[in-house]
Design a protein that fits this description.
Length: 141
């Protein structure tokens, strides 16, 4: 007795990307998460760098210490806003993220003038870029 096997039907190809209308919310959430994660990393790097700076040292190190502390606080606050722990509308989120981006850029410039602070400067720049990317997903102000 011979049995014939039917050929298995080919599985439907999986859709590799969502339609444009579905991609927007996904991109928004991904960029929001990336921004929050960059804020956490930047806050950690800035707090660590600031703790290594002598408050009575040279002027540039005093400035770097103050900027590092401020950047850590702003990044921490921004992360809380992006996490949804501080309920704000889109305008409030935009202002917070723009402030974070600005402080991170300024802090990176200050860290560039301090020997040994390059890793912290890179974390600040990465955070500023993540903020920029997230701001691009928000509706225009």
């Amino acid at each position: 007795m011979t049995t014939t096997t039917k050929p298995k039907p080919k599985p439907k190809p999986k859709q590799t990307s969502a339609p444009a209308s579905e991609q927007e919310p996904i991109r928004f959430l991904e960029d929001r998460f990336d921004c929050a994660q960059a804020c956490v990393e930047c806050a950690r790097a800035c707090a660590l760098r600031a703790s290594c700076m002598d408050p009575d040292g040279p002027k540039v190190r005093q400035l770097a210490r103050r900027m590092g502390l401020m950047c850590a606080e702003v990044c921490d606050a921004t992360c809380l806003v992006l996490d949804g722990q501080h309920h704000r509308g889109e305008a409030g989120i935009r202002v917070q993220v723009e402030w974070c981006r600005s402080v991170c850029r300024e802090c990176a410039d200050v860290f560039d003038r301090c020997p040994g602070a390059q890793v912290s400067a890179r974390a600040c720049r990465a955070c500023a870029q993540a903020c920029t990317d997230f701001l691009a997903t928000l509706l225009p102000a």
